[in-house]
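note to self: dont lose this again. the chain is below, predicted strucutre after it. 213 aa total, dont forget to put it in the shared folder this time
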Amino acid sequence: MPLANDPMRFALTALITCLIAGCSLQPPPANVPIAKEQIEMRTVVPLVRSLTPHDRGPTELEFDVPALPDDATPPVFIGVRITGVDPTAVSQSADRLISAGVSAELHLERIEPSGPVSVELQRSQRVGVGQQASIPLSADGMAPGLFAFDADGTTLQDAGLSTEQTASRELAFGYSNAVQPGRYRLKLRFDQNAEALVAANAQLLVAYTYKGK
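---
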């Protein structure tokens, strides 16, 4: 029977030909960004949260800190990040935040069956021209301002929170150089000049610290 007289055979043959030619096999787009809703629900370091004018706090955030393949007790910091497409504009926004004197009260606790265990946080303080010293946060948890810091870019990219095409600057309120794997609770309250964070479209950031090569 001629193929033209058998519509079903003709349609099937056309479909097979199309599949062989690849006309129906479109590769998925590369570097698909993670939806904002998924990002905001992430509870494993590294993580980010959007900030609004109503986010002065106090705010509590629970999250897990996994060990890294090359570090059983990795360094972690708490701060904010600025992102954008223009590296110059991003750097200028970050510098303005440092100068704005945005202060915050923060307490980090490791959640244990016997009860929460306080984690001592450090901050960076200028001690001379071009010199910085690491000092503990005061007992009340007050961080008087933000300072320049660097997040580990690889873990941010692996988590879908950053791409190579995005310019980013990270700033810290406080950090710990060795965090045991486990569940943690962050208590955070923005104090002075918090409106500068919203104006800069900053995001709250809890991330691993970049350790260099």
